[in-house]
Specification:
410 residues; alpha/beta; Rossmann fold; Coagulation Factor XIII, Chain A, domain 1; 2 domains; five-stranded antiparallel beta sheet; 8 helices
């Protein structure tokens, strides 16, 4: 089978000018600059893409993964022919539809209806082909009431709905979707993911950029990992997302489960040290079902009538998965007015699934926060077997770990 997209040694180079010249140049300025000596030190060459080579096959759902600035959006723009590569070649064996930025490919003065036909024409479709899908596009977008209103009066969410509906319903062989879906509401995002799954099952090819690893894994069967414009790895989607997560967590905050907090302003910084204990041992590596403790050492210039410790656990995407304080659950009583001490949060068995997590610590007095430390310490949770024969929980179905579940048959 021949690849539907062949990317061979593709690079995209930009020149950054450090001369301090800003704004647009007049014709006179541009002409006079031809005779000026340009110091090479005033310019810097930057590679947004650096010698990328890989193939995409019909029916592939490819997740494009990487940190901000990795080159993901530039790659999609090059593949969509919005911007040409500086070097290398791209061979496409199918019609491409892309959704990169809100409003891209739309004309603000035209109505929604006219923009549907405009986009279809750009994709090379005949009017009869566009008409065949028109009702489905309008129904999916949910903007039937405004379909004959000029696009300039649409909100960004309405534009996104229409743009995605057009891109997904006009049956391109290759559908390219950038992080732009984050603009939509949760219900619409779910609807879009469902439609992209339908597109994938129909044998068409999808390229999908997102920082949401769960969305990537649910939709894509393959992945590529980019970093600073270079292709780091490619392969099965789960392997690539795991590698991305492990690379993100390589700069672990806190060594061996201990973080010493530097004090700059003692009046508002009362946390001195944070410790993670796994089965009563200092460690930044936990496992599903372990005993998990967070010790917070504090010292305050003023008496704390009701020392309050809040702990927020976030996943690799920065989304909170747990947020509690010592006014909840057992032991939620004040120890009396204190200036210093150690507050401990203990979870008898950790219910987090495997992955990388970070902690926010909020130390205060009563309901008043005094010292807030966001994303201050990272830790890893390793998978644990839940049955004697070594069965692991399916992480696509489980978002938290249950240590003991009992079954009866009668």
């Amino acid at each position: 089978m021949k690849p539907i997209l062949e990317i061979k040694h593709v690079s995209k180079k930009y020149t950054i000018n450090h001369s301090g010249q800003t704004g647009y140049l007049s014709l006179r300025d541009s002409f006079s600059n031809l005779f000026k000596f340009n110091k090479s030190g005033n310019k810097e060459t930057f590679y947004a893409l650096d010698d990328l080579t890989f193939d995409i096959y019909p029916g592939d759902s490819l997740g494009v993964i990487g940190k901000n600035g990795a080159g993901k959006s530039t790659l999609l723009k090059v593949l969509s022919k919005i911007t040409p590569p500086s070097s290398g070649s791209i061979l496409s064996r199918g019609r491409i539809a892309s959704l990169l930025e809100v409003g891209t490919g739309f004309h603000p003065e035209l109505t929604g209806r006219e923009n549907v036909y405009l986009n279809g024409s750009i994709l090379g479709l005949k009017k009869s082909e566009i008409e065949k899908h028109f009702d489905a596009i309008v129904d999916f977008s949910g903007i039937e009431q405004f379909i004959d209103t000029p696009l300039k009066h649409y909100s960004s969410g309405m534009q996104l709905r229409l743009a995605f509906a057009v891109a997904a319903h006009l049956e391109p062989e290759i559908l390219i979707i950038d992080e732009v879906l984050a603009v939509g509401d949760a219900e619409f995002q779910k609807k879009c993911i469902g439609k992209m799954e339908d597109v994938s099952k129909s044998g068409r090819t999808i390229l999908f950029v997102s920082h949401n690893m769960a969305a990537i894994e649910s939709l894509c069967n393959k992945g590529i990992l980019l970093s600073k414009g270079k292709l780091i790895d490619q392969g099965p989607c789960r392997e690539i997302t795991n590698k991305y997560i492990s690379l993100n967590a390589s700069d672990v905050k806190g060594e061996n489960g201990v973080l010493l907090v530097k004090q700059h302003d003692t009046s508002s910084k009362i946390v001195c040290k944070i410790e993670l204990l796994v089965d009563d041992r200092l460690s930044s590596i936990a496992y599903m079902g372990c005993q998990f403790k967070v010790n917070v050492h504090f010292a305050s210039d003023e008496l704390l009538d009701y020392p309050l410790l809040g702990v927020i656990v976030r996943d690799i995407n920065g989304m909170p998965v747990m947020g509690i304080n010592n006014k909840m659950y057992k032991g939620n009583v004040a120890a009396g007015p204190l200036r210093e001490g150690i507050m401990t949060m203990e979870i008898p068995y950790l219910q987090l699934m495997s992955g990388f997590y970070s902690l926010d610590i909020r130390m205060g007095n009563g309901y008043k926060d005094i010292h807030v430390l966001n994303d201050c310490l990272t830790f890893q949770v390793e998978a644990a077997k839940v049955a004697p024969d070594g069965i692991l929980l399916d992480e696509k179905l489980n978002k938290f770990f249950m240590k003991d579940v009992y079954w009866t048959v009668s």
